[in-house]
Write a structure and sequence with these properties.
- About 75% of the residues lie in helices and about 0% in strands.
- It is mainly alpha-helical.
- It has one domain.
Amino acid sequence: MNTSNRRMGLFYVITGATCWGIGGTVAKKLFQEYQIDVVTTRLLTAGMLLLMLQLFRKDRSQVIEVWKHKASAGQLLIFGLLGMLAVQYTYMASIQHGNAAVATLLQYLSPVIVIIYTLLRKQTVLTKQDIITVVLALVGCFFLLTNGSMSQLSVPAAAVVWGVLSGFAAAFYTLYAVGLLNKFDSLVVVGWAMIIGGFALGFIHPPWQLDFQRLTAEAYAYILFVILFGTMIAFWFFIKSLESLSPKETSLLGSLEPLSAVVTTVVWLKAPFGSFQWIGAICIIGITLILALHKEPSMESEKSILKIRNHANRDI
C-alpha cells in the first residue's frame, strides 16, 4: 500500500467519523426542539443521493450490475440488513432502554471484536500497538461520555444487551463491507445498503408519519445537514476508507465520532466539559496520532509473520 493511498484512507475515516458525530449532535437538537426522528428519511434520501452520484461516473453500470449476480445481490442484502440496519436499530434501542453514553460506549467495543475476529481468522497478528490503541479507545470513550461518573453506567439490562449487539453490528458492518468493496464502488455498496436498511426500518418508523408542514426553515436546514453530512458523507467515507486501511484501523479511528459529538455539544449546545472528558479527548487524539504515524503492515507481511511463527513453534 503506497503512502498517498494510506493518507487518503486516513482522511476518509477521520472525516467520516467526525461528520457522524456532528450529525448526531444536530439530530439530537432536531429531536429536542421538534420531537422528530428522521432516521428512516435520512437513510433513504442519502442512499438515493449516493446512487445518483454513481450515475455520473464512468462505471455507472454498477448500480444495476450489483443485482445481476445472485452472490453479490445476496451479500448486499445481508450488508444492508445485518450491517446498516442493525447498526442503526440496535444503537437506537440501547438509547431507548438506557442512555446515549452507555449505548455509544458499548458500540465502541467493535474495535475489540474486529481485532479478535481477524486474529481467529489468522488475518493479522496481535501487536503492542493494538493493545495500546484499544485501551485508549475504551478509556477515551468512557471518560468522554461519562466524565468519570460510574452513575452514568446504571442502566437496565436491556440497554446493555442492545448496546453489546450494537458493538457486534458495527464490527460486522466494518468487516463484511471489504468483500463487496473488492467488486463494487463504495458509492454503490453504501447507497444500496442505506436504501435496503431505510426501507426495512420504514416498517418500524414510517417516514410518512412525520408532519413536515410544522417544521421551520431552521429545522429543514438541520435535516439537510443530517442527510448530507451526518449520513451520506459519514457512512460513505467510513466505508471508502476500507479501500486503503485495515478494518481494525478504521474501527479504531471511528472513536473520533464520540469526540466530535461531545465537542460540538459543548461548543454549540453549551454543555459543560469536565476534566475527565479532557483526558478522554487526549486518548482519542492519541489513537489518531499513533495510527497516522504508523505504517500498517500489509496482509502479505502479516501472513509471512504468521508463517515464521508457525515454523518456529514446530521446531520447538
